[in-house]
Amino acid sequence: MGRGPRRGGRKRFTDFKTLEAEAKELKERKEREANGEEVTSSEEEGETESESEETSSEEERRSGEAGKKKGVEGLIEVNNPNFKPKKAGTKARDADLNSAPTLTRREREALEAQRSKERYFKLQKEGKTEQARKDLERLALIRKQREEAAKKRAEEKAKKEAAGSKKK
Length: 168
What we know:
Region (Disordered): 1-132, 147-168
Domain Casein kinase substrate phosphoprotein PP28: 80-158
Protein name: Casein kinase substrate phosphoprotein PP28 domain-containing protein
Oligomer: single chain
Structural class: mainly alpha
InterPro entries: Casein_kinase_sb_PP28, HAP28
Pfam family, one: PP28
């Protein structure tokens, strides 16, 4: 929201004179610092008040960026374990064609799951898993029951034939 009853927010626009003066001042400071001289406060007081008001916020921002670190940051260097600098992209000439491609975690887990399924089915075909043993026991029991039922049917048929031949 703007300040006051006027519309437009009372915007301030910079003029080229102040920008040129700032650039010139920065160059002088850098030259002095490079030469080993310290910037004196009397030279800074020589600026006009209007220029200093407009440039003070910009200078603070710049000095904050390039200035000292606040608090303990300057004394202690902290390595963030979650921060990984971006790697430069690999070039085709640098790529090693003979090495196996690196897989993502999901791809690796999917391959492991597929291999374990194949291994399990192979063991199951050979009858070495517990489920396969139970299935084979159940099948043996069913075969035995069917054989007994077939014997009973054959005996009953033989009895009927014997009884039928006696009646005739």
